[in-house]
Amino acid sequence: MTYINENIWEQLTIEELSEITDLSQSRFKHKFKEHIGRSPIDYINSLKIEKAKEIIPKTDSMKDVGYKLSYSSPAYFSHVFKKYTRMTPLEFKNRFADLSSQIANSNQTESF
């Protein structure tokens, strides 16, 4: 778990993780799911999407976010992001911007 968390920006593979744990790939996947309750890929993707949600509001390029998180293509990043959030990265960014704007406006109104 520590290795995954420390290397979340890298392209992590089952092969790499199984070698680190000195288990076969199938044994690693089985043990991981047994202990964590989800597949290694699902766990890794969920962590990556949480990281993406942190940096999307601060960047203009969704493509750069996907590449920063080591997704192979912007389309695949968008697909995975939508699978976990039910919206595209751009929809998330726009929703976040709208929410930030509403909060800023309500803070200005309250200060009167």
Question: Explain this structure to me?
Answer:
The protein has 112 residues and is an all-alpha fold. The chain has a single domain, classed as Arc Repressor Mutant, subunit A, CATH 1.10.10. It is built from 7 helices and no strands. Helix 4 (40-55) crosses helix 6 and helix 5 crosses helix 6 (74-85). The longest helix is centred in the C-terminal third of the chain and has 22 residues, at 89-110. The protein is elongated and about 50 Å long.
Secondary-structure arrangement, i.e. CATH architecture: Orthogonal Bundle
Mean pLDDT: 90
**Count of discrete domains:** 1
The count of β-strands is 0
Rounded to the nearest angstrom, the distance between the terminal CA atoms is 49 Å
Number of helices: 7
Look up the CATH topology: Arc Repressor Mutant, subunit A
Which runs of at least 5 residues are low in confidence (pLDDT < 50)?
none
Helix percentage: over 70%
State the major sheet: none
Structural class: mainly alpha
The shape is elongated
Q: Would you state the CATH class? A: Mainly Alpha
Give the strand content: under 5%
Query: CATH H level: which superfamily?
Result: Homeodomain-like
CA radius of gyration: 18 Å
What letter string, H or E per element, gives the SSE order? HHHHHHH
